[in-house]
């Protein structure tokens, strides 16, 4: 039931109001959106994975209302890197009938202090804060509040000055996407500015973003999550994290890609499926991982990365981005002879050498806000436009 306080009505936070999450965990304070189900989370103890899957990239509250004031209480968890400049506050984007209508941040919240040199992380509790939007039109409208793509966010309370009604989640074709921190939204300015959000808006699709920063590692539990999630079109962007972590060699990579795609096809045998190879990243085009923090840059107050691998070891099966692109192209060609709904997109068509010259990667790995928009626009034009591999009735 709803309660009224200070002329605002409190509406219980339920699954029907929240789009883009695979699971909602009931906490002492409210609801914590997850982008991987509990069974998947239980199969990996990596703190990085648990951190990023709880950051609600692409997750938003969606409802119909005549409210002119909307308040959302949340408990964010904000990352602070020792020795690095403060990170920007997480952003809450408001859309009204699909159009931008405001942005805000929530003060307070928990703090996660990360020391990359020591490899440690300390959690410091903090208070609940409020994202508040006022001056909305009193007409009936669809309101979306996109949660910060890079802050773990517990949802505590929703208040409005008029009743709200849930919106059915599958009113538009559903695009299910998996990728690395670039897909997750690293260095985008806001949740609707991540390249998948930009592409989804232009393509007329509902986004479920399983971009997992540092964790697009061909994990079987991620493939099963993709397999079990209803979707009309699917894309998987593979490669950069495997180089970053120096996780496997070429011998393991090919069969792992086949297995990942096989698992997705178990649940989506005929769904359009687009494999996207890595965008340009000069750091690792021909130099294997691992990727390490650049402590010289850190001492200067900058966050940057360096490639620690040896290019001479490519012949021993060490993975580089060029090696991965070639192998992905070979695998898709092989499988496409029996799978007419499988397609390939070279990531350099989204962000290539000319783009790097104009919009370089600020930390050596991640595109900035302008590059995110460009990648999203290009993806929409290449994938969702009529005749594209993920073309949908909405796009046509």
Written overview of the protein:
The chain is an alpha+beta fold and 396 residues long. It contains eleven helices and 22 strands. It has helices at residues 38-41, 47-53, 181-184, 195-203, 220-228, 240-245, 250-267, 295-299, 321-336, 353-358, 369-384, and strands spanning 3-5, 8-11, 18-19, 23-26, 31-34, 60-65, 70-81, 92-96, 99-104, 110-115, 120-124, 129-133, 141-146, 152-160, 164-166, 174-179, 206-211, 233-237, 273-276, 291-293, 305-307, 342-345. The strands form five sheets. Strands 1, 2, 7, 10, 11, 12 and 14 form a seven-stranded mixed sheet that branches. Strands 3, 6, 8, 9, 13 and 15 form a six-stranded antiparallel sheet that branches. The longest helix has 18 residues, at 250-267. Residues 1-5 have low confidence and may be disordered.
Give the % helix.
25-40%
Portion in beta strands = 25-35%
Q: How large, in whole angstroms, is the Cα Rg?
A: 21 Å
Structural class: alpha+beta
Q: How many separate helices?
A: 11
Got a strand count? 22
Note the gap between the termini.
41 Å
Largest sheet: 7 strands, mixed
The global form is: globular
Unreliable parts: 1-5
Mean pLDDT: 94
How would the blueprint of this fold be written?
Elements: E1 3-5, E2 8-11, E3 18-19, E4 23-26, E5 31-34, H1 38-41, H2 47-53, E6 60-65, E7 70-81, E8 92-96, E9 99-104, E10 110-115, E11 120-124, E12 129-133, E13 141-146, E14 152-160, E15 164-166, E16 174-179, H3 181-184, H4 195-203, E17 206-211, H5 220-228, E18 233-237, H6 240-245, H7 250-267, E19 273-276, E20 291-293, H8 295-299, E21 305-307, H9 321-336, E22 342-345, H10 353-358, H11 369-384
Helix pairs in contact: 4-11, 5-7, 7-9
């Amino acid at each position: 039931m709803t309660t009224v306080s200070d002329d605002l009505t409190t509406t219980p936070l339920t699954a029907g109001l929240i789009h883009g999450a695979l699971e909602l965990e009931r906490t002492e304070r409210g609801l914590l959106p997850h982008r991987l189900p509990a069974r998947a989370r239980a199969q990996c103890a990596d703190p990085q994975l648990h951190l990023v899957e709880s950051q609600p990239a692409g997750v938003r509250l969606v409802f119909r209302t005549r409210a002119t004031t909307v308040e959302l209480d949340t408990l964010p968890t904000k990352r602070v890197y020792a020795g690095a400049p403060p990170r920007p506050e997480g952003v809450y984007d408001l859309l009204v009938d699909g159009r931008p209508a405001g942005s805000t941040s929530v003060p307070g919240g928990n703090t996660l202090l990360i020391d990359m040199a020591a490899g440690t992380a300390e959690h410091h509790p903090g208070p609940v804060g409020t994202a508040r939007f006022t001056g909305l039109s009193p007409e009936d409208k669809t309101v979306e509040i996109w949660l910060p793509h890079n802050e773990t966010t517990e949802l505590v309370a929703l208040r409005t000055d008029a009743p709200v009604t849930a919106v059915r989640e599958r009113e538009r074709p559903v695009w299910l996407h998996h990728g690395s921190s670039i897909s997750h939204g690293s260095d985008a300015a806001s949740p609707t500015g991540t390249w998948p959000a930009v592409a989804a808006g232009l393509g007329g699709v509902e986004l479920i973003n399983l971009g997992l920063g540092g964790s697009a590692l061909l994990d079987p539990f991620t493939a099963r999550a993709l397999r079990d999630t209803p979707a009309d079109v699917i894309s998987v962007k593979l490669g950069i994290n495997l180089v970053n972590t120096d996780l496997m060699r070429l011998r393991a990579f090919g069969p792992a890609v086949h297995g990942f795609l096989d698992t997705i096809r178990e649940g989506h045998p005929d769904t359009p499926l687009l494999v996207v190879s890595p965008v340009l990243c000069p750091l690792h085009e021909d130099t294997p991982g691992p990727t390490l923090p650049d402590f010289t840059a850190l001492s200067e107050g900058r966050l940057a990365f360096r490639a620690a691998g040896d290019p001479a070891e490519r012949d021993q099966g060490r993975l580089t981005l060029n090696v991965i692109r070639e192998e992905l192209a070979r695998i898709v060609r092989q499988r496409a002879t029996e799978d007419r709904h499988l397609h390939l997109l070279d990531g350099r068509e989204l962000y290539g050498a000319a783009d790097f010259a104009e919009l370089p990667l600020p930390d050596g790995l991640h595109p900035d806000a302008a590059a995110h928009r460009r990648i999203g626009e290009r993806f929409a034009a290449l994938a969702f436009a009529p005749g594209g591999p993920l073309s949908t009735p909405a796009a046509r």
